[in-house]
Amino acid sequence: MTIEERCAEAKELYQTTLDPTVLQPAWLEAVDHSVSELRSLIGASENLTNIAAALRQSGSHMRALRHLLAPPLSQDQFKLACPEWTKSTEKSGIAIKAEAAELIAGRVREWLEPAHLSAIADGKSFDLLGAAYLMARQEYETKKRIKLARRQEEEICAVLDELGFSKGESRFVNEPGSLEKNEYLLATKFATADNSAHEVDVAVGLPGKMILAIECKVSNDATNSIKRTNDVIKKSEAWRRQWGNFVITGALIQGVFKPTEIVRMEGSDIVVFWSHALDEFRSWIKDRA
Question: What pLDDT shows up at residue 122?
């Protein structure tokens, strides 16, 4: 079967999941969560008049603040605009120290949407729901991809269990033979040549100290598939520099992918598997185990 045919199959199956009765509850939950985050920020920052106070309370307020900027900025974009900010504080909710909070708040004020700033500061109404929808879209799409990727991991584990592999405890993998033959690990960090560590979704121990590092990738549309492909290629190149031929990078694909992106992965020596054709993954493992 050609790459184009595989992509068409995957797209058709993904389209069958676009059921409003299934998807709308999760979307409305994301909107409610975003509304709550915005209201929490407005209260903690005294109607945006004391943004530093909100950040000293919790770094998680940055998510709402980023979406009130003009234009809204991603984490990476805001980090470039404000190097003093530590991205991890947004997810962890850790309180930001006073000096850093003041620096970050100053940069936020420079970027804030003037209409939002004046309306909230004056205690007037503003388009809370519109801002919440902007936040919710990002949260919803991310959670959906994570949920589908987790399902992919479960499917891989089921195949490996069936073939007699055993699940090991996740640990730092830093040399050939770190995984026993017929052992697999989930969410495991691999050492790379630049002294960093990239996490792999599923690592599988093969004969000869070889390791198959599988990335689970779900794409919502053709454009998104470019980013998903770039993620896999970046990790694969980093592992190859560190490990040489001891690591084989694999990608389990689901959703809408451009055929050219599959070609790019295969051209980078990445083994592509498909969620809707797991028998091919099963056969690949059996041939090498």
Answer: 61
Q: What are phi and psi of 95, to 5 degrees?
A: -65, 140
Q: What letter does residue 76 receive in the DSSP assignment? A: H
Residue 121: pLDDT band (50, 70, 90) is low
At 28, the pLDDT band (50, 70, 90 cuts) reads very high
Q: Which CATH number fits domain 145-288: 3.20.20.140, 3.90.650.10, 3.40.50.2300, 3.40.1350.10?
A: 3.40.1350.10
Go through the chain and tell me how many residues it has.
289
Edge-to-edge strands of the sheet including 211-219? 166-167, 183-191, 197-205, 211-219, 247-255, 271-274
* DSSP 8-state class, residue 178: S
Q: Residue 99, class by beta-carbon neighbours within 10 Å (0-12 exposed, 13-18 middle, 19+ buried)?
A: exposed
Q: Got the DSSP string for 111-130?
A: HB-HHHHHHHHTT----HHH
Q: What is the largest CA-CA distance in the chain?
A: 69
Distances from the Cα of 5 to the Cαs of 10, 11, 266, in angstroms? 9, 10, 16
